[in-house]
Write a structure and sequence with these properties.
The protein is α/β, with parallel strands linked by helices. Helix content is 21%, strand content 38%. 30% of the residues are buried. Bound molecules: inosinic acid.
């Protein structure tokens, strides 16, 4: 599909499945170089990360715990800037190395909120890996350490990312038609 319509908006193909999968494999390799043999916990930020984590884990061969947090700041195609903590972390992460896995870092407000939450839990270290990063929208304090794709400041859907609840099932990533 070269374009899709979701609710009232049109989107055009931007990143194809094969390209996404290759980049994820490369990211898994980088994380393996750094974390193999360490006491590490991956923390996925729901909902958008579920496909990313599932594919990333196929290439992780060392022992790692995976946990999920649910945060939300989006209404429609714009970030509200206010984060709500919808589902809290349930594992003991004190003194452990944490890797946050994000589907996308946009304004960075979600990440700032999350960093504070994790630092309060006295973790040994925190790094962030994001599938997508919008440098032109970023206004936060913490940049992701690992990024699969830097993308322009345009709304995207697919591969776990939604527009008002829909589009997560798409295997490719689509960009809003400007
Ligand atoms: P931030 O707090 O502005 O960095 O936004 C982070 C969250 O907003 C992400 O985890 C996504 O859930 C959502 N988000 C940001 N940009 C997009 C986009 O282009 N498409 C879909 N969701 C997005």
């Amino acid at each position: 599909m070269s374009s899709v319509t979701i609710h009232d908006k049109d989107f055009v193909i931007y990143l194809e499945e094969e390209k996404i999968q290759k980049a994820i494999e490369e990211l898994a390799y980088q994380l393996t170089q750094k974390y193999e043999g360490k006491d590490v916990v991956f923390i996925g930020v729901l909902n958008g990360c579920f496909r990313f984590i599932s594919d990333l884990m196929k290439h992780i061969e060392f022992d790692v715990e995976v946990n999920f947090l649910k945060l939300s700041s989006y209404r429609g195609t714009a970030s509200t800037g206010k984060i709500s903590d919808l589902l809290s972390l349930n594992s003991d992460i004190k003194g452990r190395q944490v890797v946050v896995l994000e589907d996308i870092v946009d304004t960075g407000h979600t990440l700032d909120y999350l960093m504070k939450l994790l630092k309060d839990k006295e973790v040994a270290s925190i790094e962030v890996a994001s599938l997508l990063y919008k440098p032109d929208a970023f206004a936060g304090k913490t940049k992701p350490n690992y990024v699969a794709f830097n993308i322009p400041n345009l709304f995207v859907v697919g591969y776990g990312l939604d527009y008002d609840g829909l589009g997560r099932n798409l295997n490719d990533i689509y960009q809003i038609r400007s």
